Amino acid sequence: MRHNKKxxxxxxxxxxxxxxxxxxxVSLILHKRINTTLAKAKALRMYAxxxxxxxxxxxxANRRLVFSYLQNKEAIKILFQEIAEKIANRPGxxxxxxxxxxxxxxxxxxxxxxxxxxxxxMLKDSKEAKAKTTRRSRRKSAAPAAENAAEAPAAEAPAAE
Length: 161
Hints:
By secondary structure, this protein is α+β, with helices and mostly antiparallel strands. It contains five helices and three strands, in the order αβαααββα. Strands 1-3-2 form a three-stranded antiparallel β-sheet. α1 packs across α4. The protein is globular and about 60 Å long. It starts with 13 loop residues before the first helix and ends with a helix.
């Protein structure tokens, strides 16, 4: 029977699929953002998020369980030290998928998958949006003063001649 077998097999056998997802999870942990196809990103999210959730509680049992999936000491170290601090208060949803269009060769849908708290671009955009609102109000008040200052020396120059 095919009960409960509706996940994406990605055109691979089980061992190859497990290796693929483990390697992609290690790359995601090390680089914080990777470029892949949409189908692989969705499969990776289902694979990686429970492992990232384990990192919230730093116990030897959790480290061994995550290591049994990933087999990379450096990734485990970064996951349990660096990433666990940033996700401590987050209840879930540790990854974000950003669609980037279709690939030229085979027209496959591509995307970025990234760790949510590590996207410097989006964090900068939100900070810049807040900064722009304050700058605009300052520029409006500073602009008339600058125009008045520019007119005053021009008016004084002919009088001095």
